Amino acid sequence: MNQFARLAIEAGPLAAFFIANSQAGIMAGTAVFMVAITIALAVSWRLERRIPIMPVVGAGFVLLFGGLTLWLQDDLFIKIKPTLVNLLFAIVLFVAHATRRNVMKRLLGTVLNLSEDGWRTLAIRWAWFFLLLAVLNELVWRNFTTDTWVNFKVFGIMPLTLLFSAFQAPLILRHQVPEEPAGSGPTA
């Protein structure tokens, strides 16, 4: 799948959430978000015959906390969802780092080929970034209107994540391990 299709699948549900919220409020936005994220997973499955773990976890949280939001008619649940997802990712990465397990390599090892030190550094940076996103989400939803929080979720978190990812390029380039050309392994 090309990068534009992947971005549309990942950002589409968020855009639908933003539009529905601006037109009909947080409850309608939440319902649309739940439907859109389910469709995005189905499209991802249809195109690739697999669904990466991060979108599955994110969708699970959207469906759980979105369902609670709609059932209890309380937007607290959809607002704390980003906090809990980012805390979960941060905790997983911090625990993996402490136990010398390399979760990032398992998730991205088919896309990147880095030294062990590169993987460790990248993982710990992402852990701190996820923790920062959790704190920012808490600050925004607790201190601003729901519409401001939705705007932050759509126009703050995604750009911050893309910017943070871009800033990892020097680390990735510095720790990239060249791939061996096909057929140049040890000979018998």
UniProtKB/TrEMBL annotation:
Database matches in Pfam families: IspA (PF04279)
Entry's transmembrane regions: 24-45, 51-72, 84-103, 123-140, 152-173
Keywords: Cell inner membrane, Cell membrane, Membrane, Transmembrane, Transmembrane helix
Superkingdom of origin: Bacteria
Chief location of this protein within or outside the cell: membrane
Compartment list: Cell inner membrane
Recorded family membership: Belongs to the YciB family.
Function: Plays a role in cell envelope biogenesis, maintenance of cell envelope integrity and membrane homeostasis.
Protein name listed in UniProt: Inner membrane-spanning protein YciB
Membrane topology label: Multi-pass membrane protein
